[in-house]
Design a protein that fits this description.
heterodimer; A: about 140 residues; mainly alpha; two-stranded antiparallel ribbon; 4 helices; 2 strands; about 5% strand; elongated; B: about 850 residues; Four Helix Bundle (Hemerythrin (Met), subunit A); 3 domains; 4 strands; globular
Chain lengths: ~140, ~850
């Protein structure tokens, strides 16, 4: 049950490669972005009163979104190509018993979570674009 | 062959279950797991009986079966029991039972901790449930909103708070056990990409518990301070805000829905491939969607608070996240459907329950997307539409999968089979009864019937729909009773089930029937996700002891610890043997919580001292034992260490995980501070100048010194300078005492009265929190000192000191942050 290999691929050593922290990095960025948007706007509206215009807060939310998406994009670039092959090459099963296969599996999960996190961030920012006051 | 027979005898002797009454002292995962499941189902039947009384009361308009007061207790206890005493514990119970076998471990890493969790659960559960027989059950709804619960409820609210805080201890204990179990106790070769999906779900859910339960513990802490000592966190007249409770409750409450849901559909991820007779279609998609759901579920809590008057933009954020969570949830369901479509489905009872689960959960999920839209929620909030929605998600997403799991794992757990005919009958009765009960409730809700009313007038036209629901509830109950009867009826005369009766592919089915206490005869090398399908020699190799750790020659219970990613064997872990200590400790801790309900402070203190004594004895005699030899041959010519300290040890990880949960709780109290700042125009209030910055600054300095002393103690001990290490521990103890005094000096010398306003109260709450942790830290320091003096802690065997230093990292951080917040933040105003 040895996995097929790309021509210039090397055998990965035990314990090296993408780890579980890397897998949850993008969702953590989502969480931080979400928390920032919510806490920032909540304090903004609570302290300035309900009739307040939201424009100033929107800039902050959009800036946070750009930073968050940038960070996720950077993380994604890092895992898109794994040791001379794309993580979307070959099969999606990742069912072989080698450290390389484990690494590719975690990379795939991390990549998909990056996409999900980016989509969720975009979802969250939509209401900020449409609402105009703190009411 | 005689060697092999001798090995088997050793294993049988070492892993023997205690006989007679002593069986109650057992800690083996298969025994405790079965008790845990049985107790959860018993509580579930109790909660169901409460529901039937409510349905009978609502069957006709203007009914007088129960009074409004009794009805309040009924619905509060029904919700509480189903959520806290069934839905969450059943996850822990099933995981404790099946996880070791699935991973190829002999037991979980901390079997005594599992037993402790179980006893906490049963004592707390009986206490909370029993209250209704004394007409003093909690009656303010299962989410206990103040001011109703702080101003009006009798002792019921205290019973709820303290009883459940106690049960939360069991959940966090289970989270520690399960995270370490999944990450460190997999069979050799079981890389993280070959780990059974159930284990992935367990890992994610246990991680969620660490961030979801602590906010509720923090909430309970503030709530009980208000109830017992009149500290006004939720009292508007003194600057508090009831919404603070709602936030803390739902930061827990919404992830909890997924904490219930994910491990239940994890069972589907095991059952469906077995009966489709093919591997799951899209393993990594399940993993990513489970992780995604785990994260997104923390961004939903305000959707329970859409009608509390928050700004529209806040509602918008949470509405958007509530819609987004449908994406990963949907992926999981599509993977299941794809697996069924691609395979040749075997028609069995567990599969019937799986399909029932998918169909019911889909309806609950879709109404969930509806109520995530804020304007729609405004219309149906607190009506029977919500009652229908939540029962479809919980029964479809949790009850049906769990029943499927019971049907599926029954032969694994007991060695006997359930009746196919009874299974089919019970399924259809439950499925039809459930839909007849809850489908009409959508309509009842849209017609305006609010939840939690004990009766209604004839002119409302809700009578017919309610009668249909009541009839459905009794059909549901009949099906459930049939199910339970099939499980508990005596089967002594029936033959044992065939080995691997469902022709499943995962490791838990390789065991003999009836099951051996020691789990697997020997621990195999794993090379694929479905080893029983892919490796035809596996069973034979295991049975003949041709794997690792095939003996117990030193007469100790042992299991393998492997590395996190690639499951390389790194240690032989000696696990706990049967003992009464976990039960005694649970009784002691239970006494603390129960006696505090009646404010019997001296007895509470006595119970706390008993708990402390038992726990210390348990630790002293059972943990970090220096082995008689440094390494052990596990077969295959490999020698593995028997003693490991620091980040490579299971104990260090257990401390790290526990303290992560504890830190979350602390940060929730800090969140309370800043939340109260946002809702008050003047915070600190005008005229209040405490606690000043001077004493908090002193406290911060002392915290750093204490923290440094503990770190220095660990380093000098490891370098062989035992005398200096002991001196540093003593310095640490003195430092901790002084830190506590300095922290108290700030609010004390400036005369902050915590009952006067919410600012004073939250400052004191933070101080009390840290002081409680300092006290525990001092006990730990003294423990290390004693261990060192009695040569149980040496420069080469220093696991205790590693773990205690880790504890101090967290306490040091909490102390610093507290000093900074209470001393520094008022300066910014």
């Amino acid at each position: 049950m040895s996995p097929s290999r790309a021509p210039n691929e090397v055998e990965r050593e035990t314990g090296h490669g993408v780890d579980l922290w890397r897998v949850i990095a993008s969702p953590i960025i989502w969480a931080l972005h979400f928390l920032f948007c919510y806490v920032f706007v909540a304090i903004y509206c609570e302290k300035l009163g309900r009739p307040t215009d939201l424009t100033a807060a929107k800039y902050w939310v959009v800036a946070a979104t750009v930073v968050a998406l940038g960070a996720i994009g950077w993380l994604t670039l890092g895992i898109w190509r794994v040791r001379a092959r794309s993580v979307t090459d070959n099969d999606f099963e990742f069912e072989h018993n080698s450290p390389e296969e484990r690494h590719r599996f975690l990379s795939h999960a991390a990549l998909m979570l990056s996409i999900l996190s980016a989509v969720a961030i975009l979802y969250v920012v939509i209401p900020a674009l449409y609402l105009s006051t703190c009411r | 062959m005689t060697d092999k027979a001798e090995e088997e005898q050793q294993l049988a002797k070492v892993w023997e279950t205690p006989k007679g009454w002593s069986i109650l002292s057992d800690v083996n995962n298969s025994t405790v797991g079965k008790w845990y499941i049985g107790a959860s189902f018993a509580f579930m039947l109790f909660g169901g009986a409460l529901a039937l009384i409510m349905r009978t009361q609502l069957a006709v308009p203007d009914n007088g079966l129960v009074s409004a007061q009794t009805y309040n207790q009924l619905f509060t206890l029904h919700g509480t029991v189903m959520m806290f005493l069934f839905a969450v514990p059943i996850f822990e119970a099933v995981a404790i039972l099946i996880l070791p076998a699935m991973l190829g471990a002999r037991d979980l890493p901390f079997p005594r901790l599992s037993a402790f969790g179980f006893w906490c659960f049963i004592i707390g559960g009986v206490f909370v449930c029993g209250s209704i027989f004394f007409n003093s059950a909690p009656d303010a709804g299962w989410f206990m909103y103040p001011p109703l619960s702080t101003e009006q409820s009798g002792i019921g609210a205290d019973i709820w708070l303290l009883g459940l805080s106690f049960i939360e201890v069991a959940s966090i204990a289970a989270a520690v056990e399960l995270i370490v179990g999944v990450l460190k106790c997999r069979a050799p070769g079981m890389h993280i990409n070959l780990t059974p999906l159930y284990s992935w779900y367990v890992l994610i859910v246990a991680g969620m518990i660490l961030f979801a339960f602590p906010p509720l513990i923090a909430g309970d802490f503030l709530f009980e301070l208000e109830r017992a000592f009149d500290w006004p966190f939720f009292d508007v007249s003194r600057g508090g805000d009831p919404l603070l409770w709602q936030h803390l409750f739902w930061i827990f409450g919404h992830p909890e829905v997924y904490i219930i849901f994910l491990p239940a559909i994890a069972l589907l991820a095991m059952i469906i491939p077995t009966f489709a007779q093919r591997p799951i279609a899209g393993y990594s998609w399940i993993v990513l969607s489970a992780i995604g759901t785990g994260f997104l579920s923390f961004g939903l809590w305000v959707h329970h608070m859409f009608t509390t008057g928050l700004p529209a933009i806040s509602l918008g954020f949470f509405s958007a996240a509530s819609e987004a969570v449908a994406i990963p949830t949907g992926i999981q369901l599509f993977v299941f459907i794809a697996t069924v479509m691609l395979g040749n489905v075997v028609r069995t009872v567990p599969m019937l329950y799986c399909l029932g689960a998918l169909a019911s959960f889909l309806i609950g999920g879709i109404t969930g997307v509806m109520v995530a839209v804020a304007p729609f929620d405004f219309q149906v909030h607190d009506t029977y539409f919500i009652v229908a929605h939540l029962h479809y998600t919980l029964i479809g997403g949790m009850l049906f999968p769990v029943l499927a799991g019971v049907q599926y794992y029954y032969p694994f757990a007991t060695g006997k089979t359930l009746s196919r005919k009874a299974g089919i009958w019970s399924f259809w009765l439950i499925f039809i009864g459930f839909n007849v009960t809850f489908l009409p409730m959508h309509l009842t809700g849209l017609m305006g019937m609010p939840r939690r009313v004990f009766t209604y007038g004839v002119d409302r036209d809700w009578g017919l729909l309610n009668m249909v629901s009541t009839v459905g509830a009794f059909i549901f109950a009949a099906g459930f009773l049939l199910f339970v009867w099939d499980c508990v009826r005596p089967k002594r005369k029936e033959p044992y089930a065939a080995r691997n009766i469902w022709n499943a592919g995962t490791l838990e089915w390789v065991g003999r029937v009836p099951a051996d206490n020691w789990g697997l005869r020997s621990i195999p090398q794993i090379n694929s996700r479905y080893p029983l399908w892919d490796d035809k020699d596996l069973q034979d190799n295991i049975d003949n002891g041709r794997g690792l750790l095939a003996d117990a020659s030193e007469g100790r219970r042992e299991t393998l610890v492997t590395s996190v990613l690639d499951a390389q064997p790194v240690q032989v872990l000696r696990v706990g043997t049967p003992t009464w200590l976990p039960m005694m400790a649970a009784i002691g801790l239970g006494g603390v919580f129960i006696l505090a309900t009646w404010k019997l402070w001296w007895l509470t203190l006595a119970s706390a001292i008993f708990f402390l004594g038992v726990t210390l004895y348990w630790l002293w005699t059972g943990t970090a034992q220096i082995p008689e030899k440094p390494t052990k041959d596990i077969g295959d010519g490999r020698e593995l260490p028997l003693y490991v300290a620091g980040p490579r040890s299971t104990g260090w990880w257990a401390m790290f995980i526990t303290m992560t949960g504890d830190l979350t709780a602390f940060l929730s109290v800090v969140f309370g501070y800043f939340f109260l700042w946002t809702v008050n125009e003047h915070f600190p209030p005008q005229g209040v100048d405490g606690p000043g910055w001077q004493w908090p600054l002193v406290a911060a300095g002392l915290t750093l010194l204490t923290w440094g002393a503990m770190l220095g103690s660990r380093l000098t001990n490891a370098a062989g300078n035992v005398v200096l290490a002991r001196s540093l521990i003593i310095a640490g103890i003195i430092g901790a005492v002084l830190t506590g005094l300095a922290l108290m000096a700030g609010p004390w010398t400036t005369g902050l009265d915590p009952t006067l306003n919410t600012y004073n109260a939250i400052v004191w709450a933070l101080v009390v929190w840290v002081i409680a942790h300092l006290l525990v830290g001092i006990i730990m320091q003294a423990y290390c000192l004693a261990r060192s003096i009695f040569h149980r802690l040496t420069p080469t065997h220093d696991a205790d000191l590693w773990n205690v230093t880790l504890y101090w990292h967290f306490v040091g951080f909490s102390g610093l942050l507290t000093a900074l917040v209470i001393g520094g933040f008022p300066l910014l105003q």
